[in-house]
Amino acid sequence: MLAAGDVIIMDNLGSYKGQAIRNCRTGLLFLPPYSPDFNPID
After folding, report:
1. How confident is the prediction for the chain on average, in pLDDT?
2. Are 31 and 11 spatial neighbours (Cβ–Cβ below 8 Å)?
3. Were 7 and a residue from 2, 20, 27, 38 both cysteine, which residue would form a disulfide, CB within 3.0 to 4.6 Å?
4. pTM, full prediction
5. CA 38 to CA 20: how far, in whole Å?
6. CA-CA distance, 12 to 40, in Å (whole number)?
């Protein structure tokens, strides 16, 4: 269960950035956009 003051780390899916998500009482941190420069497999 999440409590006020918890931090959630999320990817950049557009549906995660809606108003309902932003109104929660937790901290939201979004991962940086994907870059192939940071992925040695690509």
Report:
1. 76
2. yes
3. 27
4. 0.50
5. 31
6. 21
Name the more confident of 41 and 2. Answer: 2
CA distances (Å), origin 4, targets 25, 29, 39:
5, 15, 34
Amino acid letter, 40: P
Compare 28 and 19 and report the one with higher pLDDT: 28
Of 28, 26, 29, 30, nearest to 5 (Cα)?
A: 26
* Per-residue pLDDT tens digits for 2-17: 787 888 888 877 777 7
Report which residue type is found at 21. I
DSSP letter for 16, please: G
